[in-house]
Amino acid sequence: MRSITTFDIQYAHRFYGFKGEAQYLHGHTGTMTIEVEDTVNQGVNMVFPCNEIKKIAWDVLKNFDHALVLREDDPLLPAVLGVYKEQGILDGHPQNTMKGPAFKTELATAYPDCRLVVTKETMTVEGMIKITYGLLKDKLNIVKITFTSGDNEASAEFPSDKSMDRCPLCGILLTEEGVCPKCGYRKKS
Ligand SMILES: [Zn+2]
Ligand SMILES: [Zn+2]
């Protein structure tokens, strides 16, 4: 069965080189839906707590929220970095607190200190799904991601290739040692 979570991400971007209005900088509230598949965890009678899926996803994806997403070859990138530097906000600001850990994948690099994500490909809804799967595939058994932004929507399905060990008392992922980080349950070996 599947557990499904949905949340919003607000971001600014543009399609550099695209022959249309989207070549201008603009913003969206994007809606991300993540579907996780596994057996039903008998102890709690659920696949996975949806708020936990959201927590795991948001921990990295919050770097996209209230952020600017630019392609690595976009000339706006050095221009924006220059202004941030001049303003003294390039390396962070006391009020910039909603930061996830910086990450670098093949498709995207997050600079949480200046709320910027630099992407290899244009950040379309399709591009965002590829980036998201790359960031989360080892943390969750994701079988489908849907991303909607303005008039654009895309979805992709992925193979169900792992079963996660979950706590029978609160449903969250057990550590590699078989311990629940929330309630302390220990898996009997
Ligand atoms: Zn757009
Ligand atoms: Zn537990």
Q: How would you briefly describe this protein structure?
A:
The chain has 189 residues and is α/β, with parallel strands linked by helices. It is built from 3 helices and 7 strands.
Detailed description of the structure:
This protein has 189 residues and is of the alpha/beta class. It contains 3 helices and 7 strands; from the N terminus they run E-E-H-E-H-E-E-H-E-E. The protein has helices at 50-61, 76-87, 125-136; strands at residues 2-13, 26-37, 67-71, 108-111, 116-119, 142-149, 152-157. The protein has a 7-stranded mixed β-sheet with strand order 4-5-3-1-2-6-7. The longest helix is centred in the first third of the chain and has 12 residues, at 50-61. The two termini are 26 Å apart. The mean pLDDT is 96. The chain binds zinc ion (2 copies). One zinc ion is lined by residues 167, 169-170, 172, 180, 182-183, 185. The site of one zinc ion has 8 residues, from loops.
Q: What is the number of helices?
A: 3
Helix content: 10-25%
CATH superfamily: 6-pyruvoyl tetrahydropterin synthase/QueD
The pLDDT mean sits at 96
Unique ligands = zinc ion
Q: Return the CATH topology.
A: Tetrahydropterin Synthase, Chain A
Distance between the termini: 26 Å
Largest β-sheet summary: 7 strands, mixed
Spell out the helices and strands N to C.
Answer: EEHEHEEHEE
**Shape verdict:** globular
Look at the structure and give the CATH class: Alpha Beta
**Residue share in β-strands:** 25-35%
> Any low-confidence stretches, pLDDT <50, length ≥5?
none
Give the number of DSSP strands.
7
Backbone structural class: alpha/beta
